[in-house]
C-alpha cells in the first residue's frame, strides 16, 4: 500500500514538472510587457533641468559632438550647446555665431535692467538651444551661479527673464575643538570638507562674531557648535544657507548667537544636546 502511494506521488511530480517545462517553452505563456517609451525633454525642460540624465528619466543622446566652444547634444528638432565664457568673449559675438540678427541683439540690449549682456564673467557657464532647421539660437542661458541664471528667449517676442533652480535645504549641526597648530577653518573642514568650510567660516568670523572674537587669536581648546543649513540643487552642494545658532567658547568664555530671538530656547536645547553627545 505504501509502495503504491509513493509511486503515485512520484508520477504526479513528474507530470507537474513536464507541464511547467512545456509552459516555459511555449512563447504564448510568457506575458510580454509593452516597452516604456520616455519622451525627450522640451526646450523649457532643458532650460530648467539642464541636459537630461537618467535620474530625470531621460538619456543623453549618444551622438553628442564636441564643439570648439563646448559640447553639442542632438535632439529631434533642436540641438543644445554647453559652453564656458572665456577671456575676451562677448555674448553679442556668441549670439551672432548662432545666427541671431543684429536687430534682435539690439532689442536684447534694451532689457539690460533685467540682464546686462555686457556684464558677464569669465568661466561662467552658458547654454544655447538652436533650431535644426535654421541653426538659429532659440534660447541663450547664462548661468550666473549654480542657482541663478538668465534666459534670453528668441522664440516668439524677444524676452529676458531671471530664474532660480529649485533648492533642497538640509540642516546640519557640527561641533569641534581647536587643536594645537590648527584653526577654525582646519577644524570645520575636517568635518565638512574644503568646499563647505570657507563660506561657513566667513559667516562666523565676519558676520556673527566679527565684533566679539578675534579669530586670529583663537587658542587650542577653544570650541564651537554651529547649527545651519546646507543648500543643494539635486545632489550637488551649492552653498551655505541660514545659520540658525552658534556657540563659541574662547578663553573660557562662551558666546551664544541665535538667528531668531523667539527660537532661542529651542536652539539652545539643540546645541546643548549636541554638546552632550
Order of helices and strands: HHEEEHHEEEEEHHEEEH
What's the number of extended β-strand segments?
A: 11
- Indicate the CATH class of the largest domain: Alpha Beta
Count of the domains: 2
Name the structural class. Answer: alpha+beta
> Which architecture of the largest domain does the CATH hierarchy give at level 2?
Roll
- Through-space gap between termini: 73 Å
Q: Uncertain runs with pLDDT below 50, 5 residues or more?
A: 27-31, 54-68, 272-277
Lateral strand order in the biggest sheet: 1-2-3-4-5-6-7
State the CATH topology of the largest domain: Nuclear Transport Factor 2, Chain: A
Rg over alpha carbons: 31 Å
Largest sheet, in brief, is: 7 strands, antiparallel
The chain-level mean pLDDT equals 78
- What percentage of the residues does DSSP assign to strands (E)? 25-35%
Assign a percent range to the helix content: 25-40%
Gross morphology is elongated
Total DSSP helices: 7
Task: Summarize, please.
This protein has 277 residues and is α+β, with helices and mostly antiparallel strands. Helices cover 29% and strands 30% of the residues.
Describe this structure as you would to a colleague.
- This protein has 277 residues and is an alpha+beta fold.
- It folds into 2 domains: 43-164, Roll (Nuclear Transport Factor 2, Chain: A), CATH 3.10.450; 168-276, Nuclear Transport Factor 2, Chain: A (Roll), CATH 3.10.450.350.
- The protein is built from 7 helices and 11 strands.
- It has helices spanning 2-25, 43-49, 91-97, 102-109, 184-192, 197-208, 264-276; strands at residues 65-67, 70-74, 78-84, 125-131, 137-143, 148-153, 159-164, 168-177, 223-233, 236-250, 253-258.
- The strands form 2 sheets. Strands 1-2-3-4-5-6-7 form a 7-stranded antiparallel β-sheet, with helices on one face. A 4-stranded antiparallel β-sheet has the order 8-9-10-11, sandwiched between helices.
- Helix 5 (184-192) crosses helix 6.
- The radius of gyration is 31 Å and the shape is elongated.
Amino acid at each position: 500500500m505504501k509502495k503504491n502511494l509513493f509511486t503515485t506521488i512520484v508520477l504526479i511530480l513528474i507530470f507537474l514538472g513536464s507541464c511547467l517545462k512545456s509552459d516555459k517553452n511555449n512563447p504564448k505563456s510568457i506575458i510580454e510587457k509593452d516597452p516604456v517609451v520616455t519622451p525627450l525633454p522640451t526646450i523649457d525642460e532643458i532650460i530648467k533641468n539642464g541636459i537630461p540624465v537618467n535620474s530625470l528619466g531621460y538619456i543623453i543622446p549618444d551622438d553628442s559632438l564636441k564643439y570648439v566652444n563646448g559640447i553639442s547634444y542632438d535632439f529631434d528638432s533642436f540641438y543644445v550647446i554647453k559652453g564656458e565664457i572665456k577671456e575676451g568673449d562677448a555674448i553679442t559675438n556668441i549670439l551672432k555665431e548662432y545666427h541671431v540678427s543684429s536687430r534682435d541683439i539690439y532689442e536684447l540690449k534694451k532689457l539690460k535692467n533685467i540682464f546686462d549682456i555686457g556684464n558677464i564673467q569669465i568661466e561662467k557657464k552658458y547654454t544655447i538651444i538652436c533650431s535644426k532647421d535654421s541653426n538659429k539660437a532659440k534660447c541663450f542661458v547664462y548661468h550666473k551661479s549654480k542657482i541663478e541664471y538668465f534666459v534670453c528667449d528668441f522664440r516668439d517676442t524677444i524676452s529676458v527673464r531671471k530664474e532660480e533652480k529649485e533648492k533642497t535645504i538640509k540642516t546640519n549641526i557640527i561641533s569641534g575643538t581647536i587643536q594645537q597648530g590648527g584653526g577654525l577653518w582646519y577644524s570645520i573642514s575636517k568635518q565638512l570638507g574644503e568646499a563647505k568650510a570657507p563660506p561657513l567660516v566667513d559667516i562666523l568670523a565676519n558676520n556673527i562674531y566679527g565684533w566679539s572674537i578675534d579669530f586670529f587669536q583663537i587658542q587650542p581648546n577653544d570650541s564651537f557648535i554651529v547649527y545651519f543649513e546646507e543648500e543643494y540643487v539635486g545632489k550637488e552642494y551649492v552653498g551655505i544657507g541660514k545659520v540658525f545658532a552658534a556657540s563659541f567658547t574662547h578663553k573660557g568664555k562662551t558666546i551664544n548667537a541665535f538667528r531668531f530671538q523667539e527660537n532661542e530656547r529651542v536652539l539652545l536645547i539643540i546645541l546643548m544636546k549636541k554638546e552632550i553627545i
